[in-house]
Amino acid sequence: MCIFCKIINGEIPSSKVYEDDKVLAILDISQATYGHTLVLPKKHYDNLLTIDDDIYQDTMLVAKKLAKAINQATSSEGVNILNNCNEAAGQTVMHFHVHIIPRKKNDDVKIEFTEHKYDLNEVKEKIIKAL
Ligand code: AMP
Ligand code: ZN
Question: Ligand 1, from 15, 47, 85, 92: best to mutate by most atoms within 8 Å of Cβ?
């Protein structure tokens, strides 16, 4: 059983901030910023690619509601909603979850992109074909 399923089952303690019949939200144990929260479905899905649409919707609606509350509660100026999907993208716990990371101007969080020059038309066509 994965670590988040153990938390959901009450086998491992957590700092719970929200719970309903389908969704749980807990403080991330390694707080990237003050109030960093994880929102997860109670049913196990490995990641974004395998989660059912209805549970995804339920989870994201809770994430939206919590983003507002966390922003207010932590006096933040913004928020990152982040999902890492698969190991290559930085996922370490293979139970779908969304990070809510409250942000302030000039905080020390780095979410950076390196710019590459690709043929946009070629990429665009590939993606459209896969839909
Ligand atoms: P990710 O890298 O997107 O899979 O994120 C996994 C997150 O889970 C990390 O930010 C960890 O700090 C967090 N985490 C791991 N174990 C626990 C735990 N027992 N309670 C709360 N958060 C955890
Ligand atoms: Zn799980």
Answer: 92
Chain Cα centroid distance, residue 66: 12
First to last CA, the chain: 33
May I ask the CATH class of domain 3-130? alpha beta
DSSP 37-97: EEEEESS---STTTS-HHHHHHHHHHHHHHHHHHHHHTT-SEEEEE---SGGGT--S-S--
Dump pLDDT digits (tens) for 66-122.
999 999 999 999 999 999 999 999 999 999 999 999 999 999 999 899 999 999 999
